[in-house]
Amino acid sequence: MARVLVLFAHPALEKSRVHQRLVARVPDHPDVTFHDLYERYPRLDIDVRGEQALLDAHDTVVLQFPFYWYSTPPMLKQWQDLVLEHGWAYGSTGTALRGKTMLCALSAGGPREAYQEGGYNRLTVRALLAPLERTAILCGMHYLPPWIVYGTHGLSLDVMEERGREYGALLEALVGGELPVADGRGLDDLNDVVRAHVGGGVA
Fold first, then answer.
1. CA trace torsion 85, 87, 92, 94 (10° rounding)
2. DSSP symbols for 91-115
3. How many Å apart are CA 154 and CA 158, to the nearest integer?
4. How far apart are CA 106 and CA 150, in angstroms?
5. How far apart are alpha carbons 124 and 171 in whole angstroms?
6. Cβ proximity of 174 and 2 under 8 Å
7. Phi and psi of 128, rounded to 5°?
8. Of 57, 141, 152, 166, which has the fewest beta carbons less than 10 angstroms from its beta carbon?
9. What DSSP string describes 116-142?
10. 4-202 — its CATH code?
11. Per residue in 154-178, pLDDT tens?
């Protein structure tokens, strides 16, 4: 069993149809911790030692957020800048995160085909998240491809509910070590893997 920490960063959750449904599907499980950064730190006064203790206590870190201008909301960047200290998270003596796993769970307004080399945005979401991937690797973490809710502007309620079920199944699979992705370097996202996992009766 793995302990999973969901670091959630959305500055306006009350306006998000998608993330409300994703949050509702976070499993009520003793090995899953849901941590809302904007709720916890409304003035961005991040408790560095408290956040480091949370990371210490978990094996897998899921960064959940809406895609903002090809990046993360500002709170998540602030969190990275303050919490991932040299000598703790990286550097010759910074080994606290070594061997842990990180992945992103995010929403994007555009459809999947827009995030391809020949698509509107020219790059995949994974390529655009390269700074996070390199950060994880610098800290000695295993980095999995992102899980993405694409095309959020046009999703029906039924599809949003289905994405919520998939997200819950993803988190449960991470806890149980059941996700069949040992090395995701060749994948742009985990969507098809998770969907197949749900189809196999996990959800």
1. -70
2. STT--TTTT-EEEEEEE-SS-GGGS
3. 12
4. 9
5. 23
6. yes
7. -70, -25
8. 57
9. STTSTTSS-HHHHTHHHHHHHHHTT-E
10. 3.40.50.360
11. 899 999 999 999 999 999 999 998 8
Question: Looking at residue 121, what is its pLDDT?
Answer: 78
This prediction has a pTM of 0.93
- Polymer length in residues for the chain: 203
Burial of 133 (0-12, 13-18, 19+ CB in 10 A): buried
Domains of the chain: which residue ranges?
A: 4-202
Measured between alpha carbons, how far is 83 from 71 in angstroms, rounded to an integer? 18
Encoded tokens for 203: 């959800």
Burial of 192 (C-beta count, 10 Å sphere; 0-12/13-18/19+): exposed
What is the separation, in whole angstroms, between the first and last Cα of the chain? 18
Cα Rg of the chain, angstroms: 16
pLDDT for residue 129 is more than 50 = yes
